[in-house]
Design brief:
Helix 4 packs parallel to helix 5. Strand 5, helix 4 and strand 6 form a beta-alpha-beta unit. The protein is of the alpha/beta class. The strands form two sheets. A seven-stranded mixed β-sheet has the order 4-3-5-6-8-7-9. Strands 1-2 form a two-stranded antiparallel sheet. The protein is 22% helix and 24% strand. The protein is built from five helices and nine strands; from the N terminus they run ββααββαβαβαβββ. The chain has one domain: Rossmann fold, CATH 3.40.50. It is globular, with a radius of gyration of 19 Å.
Amino acid sequence: MIAVTTLLVPDENGQLCAFGTHIETAPAIEPKLTDCWRTPPELFEQVNADFDFQIDAASSDDNRLTPHNFTADDNALELSWTAEASARGVPPVFWCNPPYSQAGGPLAAWTDKALEESRRGATVVMLVPADTSANRMHVALRHADEVRFLDARVQFLHPVTGLPVSGNPWPSCLIVFRPHVPPDGWPGGARVSVVPLPRKARADDASG
């Protein structure tokens, strides 16, 4: 995939003209496959120890990490997560490694959904690319309770074989939305930290 960005600036006559072009090349990865990449269990177990997740908000029945889950057929972006948790008789505590492609729903929409559900009383932890230039990250830094940046790239797993997959060029972070976020966000914004990624979950140390 090649992303091309052109900067437009006014010339001496006030007309916009191209000033420069930046070309960025990223690995060509099949979107549907990456949407189904599984969280390495070592990372999930580390985070689950803090939260005791009850519902995996973006998974299949085969790769869910919690007692309950929402599949693509459930259309989680339209579903009331807190109502579903109540109906299933479990606390509204959600793990969410959402699909990263536009086909799976923009990451901004998943971030907005997590915020919406936290205002209804849910705790939601998201595993997402740590792109601080994205508007969704600005929302998280204002309204999330915590943003935990991981200190290495995550070694995701193939959705069918369970084996490590290559092609994750992005750093990741955990966004923690806790219940009843104030309308203007938490005073001072999210607490920010850097946390160690378990060795076997690291893309630069997948062999161990």
